[in-house]
């Protein structure tokens, strides 16, 4: 897991860029995919 801090000035915004990769352990076929992501936001 990669952790990255992003400082955001008051009244500003930030873009959080993500990417994902698919790794098949066997032959892959077309079909539905389910994913999930977890965010932790710490603010003061």
**Major β-sheet annotation:** none
Instruction: Tally the helices.
Output: 0
What Rg do the Cα atoms give?
A: 16 Å
Spans of 5+ residues with little confidence (pLDDT < 50)? none
Keywords: Fimbrium
Family: Belongs to the fimbrial protein family.
GO biological process, one term: cell adhesion
Protein name: Fimbrial protein
What is the element layout, followed by pairings?
Elements: no helix or strand
GO biological process, one term: cell adhesion
Protein name: Fimbrial protein
Main location: other
Q: How would you characterize the overall build of this protein?
A:
Belongs to the fimbrial protein family. It comes from Acinetobacter baumannii. It is found in: Fimbrium. The protein has 44 residues and is low in regular secondary structure. Helices cover 0% and strands 0% of the residues. It contains no helices and no strands. The relative contact order is 0.18.
